[in-house]
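Listing S7. Sequence submitted for prediction.
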Amino acid sequence: MKRVTSAIAHGHIACAFQSKPEQSRSQRSKHRIGPRSPLTVDLNCTDQFRGATRTVETIEIGTSGIIASRIALGTWAIGGWMWGGSTDIGESVHTIRSAIARGITLIDTAPVYGFGRSESIVGMALSGGLRERAVIATKGGLEWRDGKIWRNSSPARIRKEVEESLRRLGTDYIDLYQVHWPDPLVPIHETAATLAALLKEGKIRAIGVSNYSAAQMAQFRQAAPIHSVQPPYNLFEREAEVDVLPYAAQHDIAVLCYGALCRGLLAGTITAATRFKGDDLRRKDPKFQEPRFSQYLAAVAALDRYARERYGLTVLALAVRWVLGQGNTIALWGARRPAQLDPVNDALGWKLDDEAKRRIDQILLQIVKDPIGPEFMAPPQRGDAGALPASLAA
């Protein structure tokens, strides 16, 4: 059964799915932490957001009983790493709280985003009474040292990361815990069994995987349930349609689509004159290199013209609505400033018809002659980590 509820503006009746009963505060208390250091920011601004929630489309995360918004706030950029350097903590906190005020309840983060910085900022933002209004999705299975990362989803690593994430987030349970990347050096059933145990212990409320194929999900599900999968998916990167989306639909798995705006390309604000600074991953992204860059920019311009002519909206709204029209999907919306959330409502409350979908495909086929996927983002396996010490590559 499709567990997607529509905004009230649609006139639809919301499905009566309820979240699982939460643990008592006494059960959670062992993971509470004290003041965070060295990250500090004035947190006395919660009241301005109370009562400000707007109604948005929601979805049940698989069969977990957890209801979340179909727009999720992605906080990779808030961590700073691979997005041009550190972001302002106060503004980041304000952005997360602004998302909650807009009805965006699902907050996606990961330890590797800024090497703990993103999770710590999320924890700050949700302190002061906002934790119970949010669905926190974080990840594990990556390890790092001296700015280098590699895959490690061993049981010991997963358990260590869960405890560290709980501390940074200032909570004693994680709503959705996802394996960030498959680790070929660790049997899938071992990773899955570890998450199944954490689910039973109440430290996590739902299990997800990220960047997994359908075959890998099938192996995983022999030892643990999967409530969500997180593939890269957007108008330009559609490899997930081959096996991941069909498998998710068949097994009632929610799909969290990261890169819904293709690292900003589909926001409609990037031009040929745009330059990326520091460690911004787009400096190495083949889509942002010629001759492909010109092709993708031309496609964005054509899609924007179509969106304005047909719907009176921008390419950004068109791209996100397209993602939300692909089944039990959630679109990750990255933002570092509250103003970047202003267009959210434009993507809600309407649908693309078949004619529009065909026209979008025609535009892409006509303009993007040399498409390429997001493979450049894959982190190395431990044996391929290059400059890593031999002790870490083992």
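Caption to Listing S7: primary sequence and predicted structure tokens for the chain studied. The chain has twelve helices and 13 strands. Confidence is low (pLDDT under 50) at residues 6-54, 385-394.
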